[in-house]
Amino acid sequence: MPSMRPLDRLAKAVSPVLSPLAKPLTTPLTPQDFLSLINPLSSARQLRGVVTSVVPETTDTATIHFRPGHGWDPHMAGQWARVGVEIDGVRHWRSYSLTTAAGEDPAITVHAEGLVSDSLVQRTRPGDVLHLDVPQGDFVLPEHPRPLLMLTAGSGLTPVMSMIRTLVGRRDDADVVLVHSSRSAEDALFAEELAELSTAHPGLRVVHWYSGERGRIDLTSTDTLDELCPDWPSRAAYACGPPEMLDAAERLWHDADARHSLVIERFAPVVLDGQGGEGGVVTFLRSDREIEVDGSTTLLEAAESAGVMMPSGCRMGICHTCLTPLRAGKVRDLRTGEVHGDEGQSIQTCVSAAAGPCHLEI
Question: pLDDT digits over 96-117, tens only?
């Protein structure tokens, strides 16, 4: 991790000394609240980062580099972090893969799709402040060196790019085959950098698959992988992309008795088919709103369509940021099909749907 900048060092040095002396003068605010006016990264309440650059990748995708404040943990290659953005006075949280090499100042590569991602791509400028949470996730490189196969599609390349940047050029024993699917050459993320890396380092081989020309990668049999990477069964495999591709990869590796060699990163929860149930009228008590939804619509989606601002983060049942008290009714966990609910129970709205009428305390 790079050394602290002058303002960061100043904030860290003076805070323990001045805070006890200044507290009586700043109550009900804290000395850190005033210090944050000088240095926006100085906050005892919320981890923050300042945007250092915004780099366009494609027509609707950009990489946002930021310098995190004190409290940030250096990320491992492949991890993700929650990022909070202020939009019209409301803070929205989303989770994004970190695309820089392990230990470097972080960056996220964002596709302009949805309220938060569109705002990040279209409106973010150097000097803007992002709210942050520490890096998380188990989609990381193996502990010991071994040949790797990276199978990605679309934005599924983002966590794998961190792995490639960490390995290639740093380890002479790197042996990586990347098979990346995109609609066309114009849509392919990091294409120029990957070409340069593969030219400079024989341990990296990049295979581009353009679905606009060839259709989706066929994983119903081993034929395509046998052609693209003949020794794939002997490699540790990392896959990230659309749910359909990941589901097919899981079946293929299972049938090949190699499932222990496959690690998957999903950007959406695994929802069981046919587990939606009956749905119902959802009432948001404090917001004085209600909406009728089917049994496959998550409570988070229902709230947003009704204009209710809900807490959210990963939107796939991992971070628990969306926990909201249930005041009446039952909900169904779309991952397991389980129906549950007691008054006052906190539920994950991003993976739960109404199982009949229900009331939420928000």
Answer: 999 999 989 999 999 999 889 9
